[in-house]
Amino acid sequence: MVLFLKIHYIKQVLRHLDDKEHNKPKAFARSASRMLDRRIKNSPPARGEERWRKGWNVRLDTYWK
Q1: DSSP label at residue 64
Q2: Per residue in 7-61, pLDDT tens?
Q3: Nearest 5°: CA angle at 43, between 8 and 31?
Q4: How many C-beta neighbours within 10 Å does residue 13 have?
């Protein structure tokens, strides 16, 4: 089940890539950041997923910076 969720998440990220961005790693990182924002927004506050946002965005930035 966990593998399915990871694959589903990656598919969402790929579907929302910005076609106009020539730097594909940057486009991937930005799309992943937006999907993460959406996931955090839709999760129950009790889960505390907001605490992961900063670290994940730092990691995503390493893909293209």
Answers
A1: T
A2: 888 999 999 999 999 999 999 999 999 999 999 999 999 999 999 999 999 999 9
A3: 45
A4: 19
Q: Which token pair is 45?
A: 């506050």
Place of tokens 């106009």: 20
User: What would the two tokens of residue 8 be?
Assistant: 């589903």
Judge whether 60 and 37 are in contact, CB under 8 Å: no
**Structure confidence at residue 5 (pLDDT):** 74
DSSP state of 59: H
Sign of the dihedral defined by the CA atoms of residues 23, 7, 15, 46, in that order: negative
Residues 27, 41: Cα–Cα separation, whole Å? 21
